[in-house]
Amino acid sequence: MSKQKMLKFTDVPRLMPEKRTAEARREDFNEIYREYADEKAAEQASRCSQCGVPYCQSHCPLHNNIPDWLKLTAEGRLQEAYQMSQATNTFPEICGRICPQDRLCEGNCVIEQSGHGTVTIGSVEKYITDTAWEEGWVEPIRPHAERPESVGIIGAGPGGLAAADMLRRAGVQVTVYDRYDRAGGLLTYGIPGFKLEKPVVMRRNKQFEEGGVQFVLNCNVGEDISFAEIREKHDAVLIATGVYKSRDLGGPGAGLPGIVRALDFLTASNRKSFGDEVPEFDSGELNAKDKRVVVIGGGDTAMDCVRTAIRQGATSVKCLYRRDRANMPGSQREVQNAEEEGVEFVWLSAPKGFTGDDAVTGVKVVKMRLGAPDATGRQFPEEIPGSEYTEDADIVIKALGFEPEALPSLWNTPELEVTRWGTVKAKFNTHETDLPGVYAVGDIVRGASLVVWAIRDGREAAEAMLAKFNEASASVAAE
């Protein structure tokens, strides 16, 4: 490489890591992209233009120092690149895999705007951190000194774990309560292995345990322990439950067997990959093998479902979405991957009901067209009269998004203030709720959103808690 390590975008074409063939991908749940070789990662990082105002960084919710760690990677200074990426992001190896880079950092890359193809930021980020784990650069959590304060975190998803990491590194005593038998939340049970292989998540969980984070698993707050008890036990509490209640579908036949929720379907599949006993999968209820599958929805969860169904050996997989491809909320990269693997997209289609007697046999579909823009500026889909038809199906998966559970009633805490959408009200910068010492982050505040936003919220809440603890210590010392 010449002395000039960067700005190679005019000479070096954009190159993603090699993608496994669609035929090979359909056979297993392994990640679809191979790793970069060292020289390829350095070469692709060298395409960065090191622009004065890095839009990639400003459009990243964590404001990762992307141009800096790309430059370090191009120079072969990988350990420093890892340290820089870890400084602003608790889980760079996870964001590198599952962030919709096409909508965030890469979608705002200056050289992409100039027609040279974006820098492959996500793939380089993944490569840096995977290398760090292999080389032993990922240091265990070892606080310089233990602190007396204790924080209870409800929810072991990315928001809760990001906060746990920062608090524990500062010496705070941290206990995480979660309803599942493994930590990680949707990272563990919601996202399929072909996007995020589970050892990647389990490795982080082990790091937290070895660093002194206490996990109380299989614990339903409101049943196994009350919210009041958790508040009593800790100096501060963080609500990071996520949103797990599936949006429902009405219409004739909506209650027929064979119509299942996306999260149930994905969780069963992920549990099988861990080797768990999953009766609903073994019975065929949550298994797409040899079935005609129809997935309803157009977000990333719908993409996870259609691609999971393909791997389970479905006869056919169709995705119904009421708008067109350009107006789909899910990642365009995921749509392309799904199409390559054999998924058929039925655009401008909406369900009106379901057919079947003892079990679902089809979805009654009406064709749509895009009319006038709604309040958000997106064209509103409207039905085309007389366009109804039936799409045959043996299993129908509802992937219409998620809503918050009614926490004030579930936790017998009516004083916990929520919005009209049921999300918890919290301050924008500190994430404090109106309840003293109670904070809230992630999807339970934002509504269904991205992992990267939950990580940002968790880190900010941890900073706010530490500031409060330090303030309290200083006032005690002054007395």
Automatic annotation (TrEMBL):
GO molecular function annotation: 4 iron, 4 sulfur cluster binding; glutamate synthase (NADH) activity; glutamate synthase (NADPH) activity; metal ion binding
Enzyme Commission number(s) from the entry: 1.4.1.13, 1.4.1.14
Keywords from the named record: 4Fe-4S, Iron, Iron-sulfur, Metal-binding, NADP, Oxidoreductase
Top EC group: oxidoreductase
Coiled-coil residue windows: none
Superkingdom of the source species: Bacteria
Domain FAD/NAD(P)-binding: 151-458
Alphabetized InterPro entries for the sequence: DPD_II (IPR028261), FAD/NAD-bd_sf (IPR036188), FAD/NAD-binding_dom (IPR023753), GltD-like (IPR006006), Helical_ferredxn (IPR009051)
Keyword Cell inner membrane applies: no
Residues in Dihydroprymidine dehydrogenase domain copies: 25-136
Signal peptide: none
Cofactor(s) named in the record: [4Fe-4S] cluster
Pfam families: Fer4_20 (PF14691), Pyr_redox_2 (PF07992)
PANTHER family: GLUTAMATE SYNTHASE [NADPH] SMALL CHAIN, GLUTAMATE SYNTHASE [NADPH] SMALL CHAIN-RELATED
Protein name: Glutamate synthase (NADPH/NADH) small chain
Organism: Rubricella aquisinus
